């Protein structure tokens, strides 16, 4: 089994807020006592932190559930409960986080130490000391803690590299990487020797340095999942320059120019924006017979079929085996990198809008539906939040919740829908009778 994992689906659950407390003073010299219950503590957030020491998402193969601690309950003497510590989850550089339900990108984590809160903890419930008024100086009301955010996430790792090596299997990408860097990729005389991305650092004679990724070989149909398919293609999205490696010896009976067209077609089919990245054509295996003649034919076909107003890509004949032409290739790559900007991976339509954790004034406060057993079902974020934060062990809290429902217009809406006295109404798993 490969120890490289670049996708994962996980569940995260932030901590619930601690419940507020109902308590009263019992001091000898304090007349009439009074409320003394403190607030609950805040629930812990689930926070992703980039760790440059991680290289894969393998840790998420075996641990798919992450739950932060809940806040402590409020205490007597007006003391607040302790807030829970955030749950820190370390992820590798280049991790994209998506909401599994909407498919929207929450964040793209690329810098070491970068943090992002993927699930926010609930606030603590208020204790009865918060509800004291001149009319009700000794309230028996407290709130339950707010539930923490819970969501399913899709993690996708796209390797961080300045330059990506693309090309058909067995064109010499791994050999080239092993020669120009200290990386030790697996090299063999068969297709798909490379089944995971390999990274290496290049340092040119002029002192420039950049990261190169040798990515698994493409075949026709890769953008639809053929061969290693999209397992490869996602990793090229972060690169700024593409080195298109072509076997000029045609040792496998393929035409070098047709190879060039086929690979570009797959890149374009996967993501049209990949064609924005500048390419350098690397004519490899020039130490083999017929390579020079094939390169001449390749240049003629490229010139004949290229837009006359477009700039032809640079072509560098090399031999990874004899190290012919490598210095020139690396200097040209470094020069191209210097003048190539970063490419945005996602546009605004793919990104989730900045989260708003209050109530949306334009959203309906509640919805009414009817179950198969004729029970009226109430739902909606605002209503369910009020329900979850109500302490039903206290009569005053229950009456307060009833007043809140009435103020939201629930009674009138049920009556308008045809609810009659004695009908059952359900919120979550809680049922009560409708009183007209």
Automatic annotation (TrEMBL):
Q: Which InterPro entries match?
A: G_OBG, GTP-bd, GTP-bd_Obg/CgtA, GTP-bd_prot_GTP1/OBG_C_sf, GTP1-OBG_CS, GTP1_OBG_dom, GTP1_OBG_dom_sf, OBG_GTPase
Instruction: Report domain Obg positions.
Output: 2-160
**Residues binding GTP, per UniProt:** 167-174, 192-196, 214-217, 284-287, 319-321
OBG-type G domain mapped to chain residues? 161-338
| Cofactor section | Mg(2+)
Q: What SUPFAM superfamilies does the record tag this protein with? A: Obg GTP-binding protein C-terminal domain, Obg GTP-binding protein N-terminal domain, P-loop containing nucleoside triphosphate hydrolases
GO CC terms for this protein?
A: cytoplasm
Please state where this protein is localized. Answer: Cytoplasm
| Documented EC number(s) | 3.6.5.-
Q: Which GO terms describe its molecular function?
A: GTP binding; GTPase activity; magnesium ion binding
Q: What is its main location?
A: cytoplasm
User: For binding Mg(2+), which residues are annotated in this chain's numbering?
Assistant: 174, 194
Annotated ranges, domain OCT: 358-436
Instruction: Give the record's GO biological process terms.
Output: ribosome biogenesis
Q: Name one Pfam family in it.
A: DUF1967
Q: What class of enzyme is it?
A: hydrolase
What the entry lists under HAMAP family is as follows:
GTPase_Obg (MF_01454)
Any idea what job this protein has?
An essential GTPase which binds GTP, GDP and possibly (p)ppGpp with moderate affinity, with high nucleotide exchange rates and a fairly low GTP hydrolysis rate. Plays a role in control of the cell cycle, stress response, ribosome biogenesis and in those bacteria that undergo differentiation, in morphogenesis control.
Oligomer and partners: Monomer.
Q: Which family does it belong to?
A: Belongs to the TRAFAC class OBG-HflX-like GTPase superfamily. OBG GTPase family.
User: What's the protein name?
Assistant: GTPase Obg
- Which gene is annotated as encoding this protein in its UniProt record? obg
